[in-house]
């Protein structure tokens, strides 16, 4: 039986942007599958909190770097609800090595691991989802990239490189997968524990304060503010494809 509700998959949905996106989609009547590679208990808690009377959120343990897990996530959506309308490629990883000039700080193994999740993962998810998305009336893929992939900054040179590759892949997919719309959202600094843990609390708070004092809009991004952009692209932007949308309060204007 095909669900009357539209259906989305959000990878990396146990926290941050993924969790905020699942919650917002659910609140507007979407059924959602959220995936995570390790913290399944946290993902299940998010799914329970996100589910509404009129919509359902399911948590799955799936590693997007593994093609079989990508196929499993898509197949679960189809077996459960009979359709797929949107894919949000949010799962990501990094190695924190802030000095990009210190080339010894990252190894080839670091590059392989980061690319396997940040680039190959979205490709495999899109490949698994394509035939089902094409049956939707308004199919959409949103890749969660980063300002790091545009400006060559961020947690490490490997991370910035992977997000640059994701941006290029977004353009290629948008050109060739129509009528599926494919866009990338490129956030700047995002408030939350993931970045705080990676930066250290002192650096995190100093960076946040600097953004609030110098950014044109005077505020840092929250997961919820990014989720609003993602859901807007999915639900309302029927003629927008192949776009790299920076969401950073104007921080990058100062770079």
UniProtKB/TrEMBL annotation:
A Pfam family assignment: adh_short_C2
Gene3D superfamilies: NAD(P)-binding Rossmann-like Domain
Domain of life: Bacteria
InterPro entries, A to Z: KR_dom (IPR057326), NAD(P)-bd_dom_sf (IPR036291), Sc_DH/Rdtase_CS (IPR020904), SDR_fam (IPR002347)
Kinase as UniProt keyword: no
Family matches, as PROSITE patterns: ADH_SHORT (PS00061)
A GO molecular function held by the record: oxidoreductase activity
Keywords (A to Z) from UniProt: Oxidoreductase
Residues annotated as domain Ketoreductase: 6-193
SUPFAM superfamilies documented for this protein: NAD(P)-binding Rossmann-fold domains
Protein family according to the UniProt entry: Belongs to the short-chain dehydrogenases/reductases (SDR) family.
Protein name: Oxidoreductase
Organism, as annotated: SAR86 cluster bacterium BACL1 MAG-120920-bin57
């Amino acid at each position: 039986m095909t669900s009357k509700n539209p259906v989305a998959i959000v990878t990396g949905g146990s926290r941050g942007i993924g969790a905020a996106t699942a919650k917002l989609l659910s609140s507007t009547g979407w059924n959602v599958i959220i995936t995570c590679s390790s913290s399944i208990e946290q993902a299940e808690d998010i799914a329970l909190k996100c589910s509404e009377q009129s919509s359902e959120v399911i948590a799955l343990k799936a590693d997007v770097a593994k093609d079989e897990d990508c196929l499993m996530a898509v197949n679960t959506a189809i077996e459960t609800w009979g359709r797929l309308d949107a894919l949000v490629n949010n799962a990501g990883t990094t190695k924190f090595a802030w000095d990009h000039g210190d080339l010894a700080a990252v190894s080839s193994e670091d590059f392989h691991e980061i690319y396997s999740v940040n680039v190959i993962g979205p490709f495999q998810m899109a490949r698994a989802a394509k035939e089902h998305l094409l049956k939707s009336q308004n199919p959409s893929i949103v890749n969660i990239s980063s300002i790091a992939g545009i400006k060559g900054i961020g947690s490490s040179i490997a991370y910035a490189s992977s997000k640059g590759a994701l941006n290029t892949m977004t353009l290629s997919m948008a050109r060739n997968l129509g009528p599926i719309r494919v866009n990338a959202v490129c956030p700047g600094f995002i408030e939350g524990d993931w970045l705080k843990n990676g930066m250290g609390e002192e650096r995190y708070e100093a960076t946040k304060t600097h953004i609030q004092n110098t950014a044109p809009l005077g505020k840092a991004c929250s997961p919820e503010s990014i989720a609003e952009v993602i859901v807007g692209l999915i639900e309302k932007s029927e003629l927008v494809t192949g776009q790299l949308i920076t969401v950073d309060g104007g921080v990058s204007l100062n770079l």
